[in-house]
Amino acid sequence: MNKNRGINTNTQKLTKSERRNAAWRSSLIGSNNVNYGTLQGTGYAWAMAKVLRKVYSNDEEYKEAMRMEYEYFNITPYMMPLVVGADLAMQEQEGIESLEAVRSIKTSLMGPLSGIGDSLLWVLFPTIMGSIAGYMALEGNPLGAIIWIILNLGLVWMRIKLFDLGYSSGMRLITDLSDRLNAITEAASIMGLTVVGSLIATVVKVYTPLEFKVGEVELALQSEIIDNILPALLPVLLTGLVYWLLEKRKWNFLKVIFLILAVSLVCSYFGILGIPS
C-alpha cells in the first residue's frame, strides 16, 4: 500500500501557464467530444489530464483521479471552466482525498450553472446580439460581422475569467472553509441527487395507453391509476432498470440504447407504450 496515499506529495504548485492550459482546453475543446455514455466527460477529462499528471506523481492515484473526471458530465459549455477551476484547486491542495468532494460539487453544479448558462448565454445572447449583428450585415454594414466577432471573443475571455473564479473559489473552499468541507460536500451531494431526481421526472418520458376494464368500468391505466399512485412511476422504473443494467450487469451504453429502442418498437406495435393523445 502506498503510505503517501491521500497526501499530495508534489510540493511544487501548478504554475499560471499550466493552469491556463486547463482553462484553454476546457474553453475551446472541452465540449467537442460528446458521446452518449458520458456526454462531456471525455472532453472534461482531456482538459484535466495534463495538469493532473503533475498533481499526481503516483500512477495509480492519477488513474483513479482520471476515472472520476471521465464520469458523466453535462453543462452549458460556457460554464465548464468555472467547474474545472474549482476541481483543479481542490485536487491540487488535497490530492486524492478530495475526489469525493470534487465528484459531489461537479454533480451539484451542473444543473444550476446550466440553468444560468442556457438561458443567458446559449439562448438570449445569440438571439438578441446575433439578430442585431445579422441585420447590420444584411444592410451592408461591416460592423455587423465585426461586432459579432468581438462579442464571441469576449465570451472566450469570460470563460478564462470563470476558470480563475472557480480556481479561487476552490482554494477558499479548501483553506477558509476546510472545517466545513464535509457539510458542504454532503449538501452538494444532496443537491446533485435532487437535480438527477428532477431530471428523471421531467426528461424521461414513458407513457402507456393501456386501459383497465371491468364490466362497465373503464379506467386509463396511465392517467387514472399510475399517475394517481405515483406520478412519473414509469420513468423511475425505466431509470432503475438502466442503472441496474449498467452498474450490476456491466452492460455498455450502446447495448442499453439498442435494448430500449427494441423494447420501444415492440411495445409500440402491440399498443403497450405510446404517445399521450
From TrEMBL:
InterPro entries: GatZ_KbaZ_carbometab, PTS_IID_man. GO terms for biological process: phosphoenolpyruvate-dependent sugar phosphotransferase system. One of its GO terms (cellular component) is plasma membrane. It holds the Pfam family EIID-AGA. The chain crosses the membrane at residues 119-137, 143-160, 181-208, 228-246, 253-275. Keywords: Membrane, Transmembrane, Transmembrane helix. This is PTS fructose transporter subunit IID. It comes from Dolosicoccus paucivorans.
